[in-house]
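Journal club prep — side note

Before the paper discussion, L.F. wants everyone to see what a predicted structure for a comparable chain looks like in token form. Sequence:
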Amino acid sequence: MRLEKLNLSNSKGKIRLVYLSGFITAIALIIIVNVIASKALYRKTESVQLAKGTVNYSLADLNIVAMYQEKDLYTDENDKYESIEQLPVESYILNQEKSVCKVKDNKDEDIEINIINNKITVSNMTKKGTKCYIYLDKIKTPKEVLTNLEKVESEKGCPTNFEKTTSAENLICKANDDDGESFYFRGNVQENWVKFGQTNDGQDIWWRILRINGDGTIRLIYAGTSEINGNAPNTIGTITQITIDNPDGNTNDYKFSADYQDNAYVGYYYTLNEVHGNEQASNAAKKINDWFELNLADEFSNGNGWIDKNAGFCNDRGVVSGHAKYPGNGIGNSWTIYSPSDRFYDWDSANWKYNKTPTLNCSNELDNFTYTESSKGNKKLQYPVGLITIDEIVYAGSNENGCDNCFLKTNQTYWTMSPDYFNTSCNVYTM
């Protein structure tokens, strides 16, 4: 069985992504609620998903709370908000950058406005006569998020067959996902950096925006921690990979699974003798969970909803039938071809397809890995974090000759969540 490994180096190797046999370098994916652009470099803003609830105050000495809601239509920033008497129950986020508490018209820097247990909470207030002003922004559609990022969908150049990429490509294209219309970055993009969160030893974490999901949330792929004069880190090398207990970046510690002689092990989580089972975590899932718990668990639990609990990561284990040599059903050691491989490779001619058909949809809910408190998917993840798919890599600009001209090139080999095929000669493969 094979989970394929993708080599994003300058070599012209196949983009087979093996995630069971071989080694794994985990590239973590998370989804956050909102980002705002600062010219070429995107930065995190203190905006959070607004949940249903009430306003709580830590002291009775809080005299006034004024609340303002972003208007549906406004002409300029000075006319952006209108006063409201009660909290809206949905479709708004708390603008924590603009929201403020003051004492005698001076901002109290110690006061925090957060969302805890589905309530907006004002904390660390110690002075009588405090007045707080809360601003709420509308949750943006993907198109509106692009506008906020000072980017627009590319009018020309977006692919139809995904055969080739060029160094001139710097595109934002669109494709449907399970939540609507998604916008993805493609080609030699340099304007999709985000600094978000810190490691357990205090280093800032850098990410690349992979795409804007159909619900307006933003999908990020880990890109390292080292900065260059305060700017984004190098785009290549082991710095782009997460590491747990292997500070030297030894990828041999990162096999997707310790086992590989059964179709079940193509699962990010798996169950023996089931195609779409989810009982046991793969080694990849364990490693990524460990990394998230070490570095982002506090951000997730106390970060006011930045990391989306509904994020889905597709481990497409659909079985393809009709191939004489691979008639398997995805169970045991039957020779099996999986859907991601069939989208890009012609097994009858043994050649890569000219018209590739990537997708951002996850056809089976059991393969859509989501956090336990998500409203969708299989709800099997300990944390809302996962791996990239082969489809997302192809959308970003890679093909069978590698990823020389796309922003995902790292000169390293890493795993995806996309199964390729299984046979008893080569065991498990993923893309």
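L.F.'s comment for the group: Residues 1-26, 34-61 have pLDDT under 50 and may be disordered. Keep this in mind when we get to the figures.
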